[in-house]
Write a structure and sequence with these properties.
Helix content is 42%, strand content 18%. By secondary structure, it is an alpha/beta fold. Strand 6, helix 10 and strand 7 form a beta-alpha-beta unit. The structure holds ligand V47. The site of ligand V47 has 23 residues, from strand 6, strand 7 and helix 14.
Length: 621
């Protein structure tokens, strides 16, 4: 995938070269990007990276903001929301009032508020428990690091215990607020009694280690310098290298309100907002998503941001007050139809998501699913999209979407193709191993024979590998284990005897090891040694109902794309190596280990797998 950029600012060319070679940007690069007057070239570079990460997808969630109280022990200068008990604008919500604001169609509730001096710990836990009890399908994103630290001090509980109890009560993820700017200079001037960067990171890294993914933010457009913005991003990037637990980064445009920091109507400029989005997309190379938070940006700027690096629109955001109390001019809630329209108008696929960014519903036609792992790169690297749009989606989720008729074609997990055989037509392409695979791995503390009755964590992404694991356990080794699904992303693996991981994550841990597990088994190698056959993990298929000329056109497109992909393994390897933690040589060797065409041996392997599947009692997980 390559694009032409007509640079007006030639200083951007070395940065563009770095991006094309998948090299990390430095602090100086970040500052240079902020200083460029060539906003269009900056946007194009960021959009290039956005498309590599998210294809044509832009995510949104049906969500409700709950700010249970505005009474706060702090008095940060930038905040127009917080107040003190007894003031006319002070409010406190009961759990009953909170529940009253929620409805069953919402998928995420975002809870954050003032640090209340008198509320009891049990109140917060009960709030989460009641929400889960009344709305079981609703995921809870709650409490910033500032609140977590406050709970720990006020209720004399270690941070770990605060998070453990909240998780048990229903907390799924944490919002990114409270980061402000990780600069001591700014902190002393604007929020001296609030936690600094050290505690913010401590809380977030701890949450990640406990299987709670989190978001991150920056509050910009007040007194911070450009260098402080870039340093903020670099610190987040380093933390993400360590834990991988951040889902998204949200630049929060400062709303001056009556804070006195800036005149009331002096909002950030659209140019500055777009630069912020684009630079964060480029600096935060290890972050999956960048959020255009329309509440603070306005709908118009957020809409442009979807072609400047942002792939996330937050959501409908009913009930927001922090920005609106400080004079935000956006509406207080967007209807779903309006969000869908904004995303469509930007030429993207509106993807309604859950709290982990798994797609629930697509509002587009002509969508091709793309498994976002290195092994499928040869198909997609040079794919000419024609009428199709591309949605990166993990194999299992792609099957769920296809079952719902939302995907027109793609590289499907083998068992999904088998299951949806009536509506899908096979194309002559696949992802098949020759012997080992290196990216479908069982990390274990027990040998195969000792896994009887043990609990195996299964990553949420897999549809076929989990069935292959059942076959190996039961038919090859004669043992039965209990499977438990783990959500995608960071996890606390300590509760499992073994874990099954697939894709780039498995590839990385295969190389560097997964802490807590001594043994590593390659499922394709186990299969090959046993059946002397390749293993077919995925096959290309297209919806039978598509017009014949489209099917033919698509087959030719895939063929062309694969040919050029296979001819450019070296550059592909060079480009993707750093992302997956391998050397360029290892990356090329990994890709050469696959067969991408469905031949007779692959078909025989599929039949063998089908027969064995009928012989084992694979549980539905
Ligand atoms: O931490 C306070 C900011 C944050 C103002 O994680 C202000 O998905 C602008 O973090 N102007 C809370 N910003 C909101 C927040 C957030 C929002 C949306 C999504 C997510 C997420 C997180 O709001 C605070 C602070 O940085 N804030 N006052 C103001 N006058």
């Amino acid at each position: 995938m390559s694009i032409e950029i007509n640079f007006r600012d030639k200083n951007l060319i070395p940065i563009w070269e770095k991006i094309q070679n998948c090299r990390r940007l430095s602090m100086a690069d970040g500052v240079q990007l902020f200083r460029t007057p060539d906003i269009i070239s900056l946007g194009k570079i960021a959009h290039f990276v956005q498309k590599q990460k998210s294809g044509d997808a832009v995510y949104f969630v049906l969500n409700q903001k709950i700010e249970p109280t505005n009474i706060c022990v702090l008095a940060c200068k930038f905040c127009d929301f917080a107040t003190k008990a007894g003031k006319p604008d002070a409010y406190e919500m009961t759990i009953h009032e909170i529940l009253h604001k929620l409805t069953p169609e919402i998928h995420e509730v975002h809870i954050t508020g003032g640090l209340h001096p008198d509320w009891q710990w049990e109140y917060y836990l009960e709030m989460l428990r009641q929400i889960k009890a009344n709305f079981p399908n609703l995921d809870i994103k709650a409490f910033t690091a500032v609140e977590i630290d406050f709970f720990s001090k006020k209720f004399k509980l270690p941070l770990h215990e605060v998070l453990r109890q909240l998780k048990e009560a229903g907390l799924r993820t944490m919002p990114g607020g409270g980061a402000e700017v990780f600069s001591e200079r700014v902190r002393k001037k604007l929020y001296s009694s609030k936690i600094g960067a050290k505690t913010w990171f401590e809380v977030h890294k701890l949450a990640h280690s406990m299987g709670i993914p989190t978001n991150s933010t920056i509050l910009y457009g007040h007194i911070e310098t450009i260098e402080e913005r870039v340093a903020h991003m670099v610190r987040l990037r380093e933390a993400q290298d360590e834990t991988g637990g951040f889902l998204t980064f949200i630049p929060l445009a400062f709303q001056p309100g009556d804070t006195g920091i800036k005149p009331r109507n002096q909002f950030t400029s659209a140019i500055d907002d777009l630069k912020m989005i684009a630079v964060s997309r480029l600096m935060l190379d290890n972050f999956p998503h960048i959020k255009a938070y329309w509440v603070m940006l306005t709908e118009e700027v957020a809409s442009v941001a979807l072609n400047f690096g942002a792939d996330d629109m937050d959501g409908t955001v009913g009930g927001e007050r922090i920005a609106h109390d400080a004079g935000a001019v956006s509406p207080s809630k967007l209807a779903k139809d309006q969000i869908v329209k904004i995303i469509r108008d930007a030429g993207k696929i509106p993807v309604e998501r859950d709290v982990y960014y798994d797609p629930l519903k697509l509002y587009a036609e002509n969508v091709i699913g793309k498994i976002p792992y290195l092994n499928s790169v040869p198909f997609y690297e040079n794919f000419e999209k024609k009428q199709f749009k591309i949605l990166p989606v993990n194999p299992r989720r792609m099957g769920i979407l296809a079952e719902d008729n939302q995907i027109d074609a793609g590289l499907f997990s083998l068992v999904d193709y088998m299951r949806l055989n009536d509506s899908l037509e096979l194309l002559p392409f696949c992802i098949a191993t020759r012997d080992q695979v290196k990216s479908v791995m069982l990390f274990s503390n027990h040998g195969w024979g000792d896994l009887e009755g043990k609990t195996i964590g299964i990553c949420d992404d897999t549809a076929t590998s989990v069935k292959l694991l059942s076959i190996l356990l039961e038919a090859k080794y004669g043992v039965r284990a209990t499977f438990k699904r783990m959500h995608t992303g960071v996890n606390d693996y300590s509760e499992y005897d073994a874990v099954l991981l697939i894709g780039d994550e498995a590839l990385k841990f295969n190389k560097f090891g997964l802490a807590g597990f001594e043994l590593v088994f390659d499922l394709a190698k186990e299969w090959y040694d046993w059946r002397k056959l390749p293993f077919v993990f995925a096959v290309w298929a297209v919806k039978k109902s598509l017009p014949e000329n489209q099917k033919k056109g698509l087959t030719e497109q895939i063929h062309r794309s694969l040919e050029s992909g296979e001819n450019s393994f070296d550059s592909v390897g060079q480009f993707h190596a750093q992302r997956v933690g391998l050397s360029p040589e290892e990356t090329v060797e990994y890709l050469r280990g696959f067969n991408y065409r469905l031949g007779e041996r692959e078909k025989a392997a599929i039949e063998e797998f089908r027969t064995l599947l009928t012989k084992v009692a694979t549980e539905k997980v």
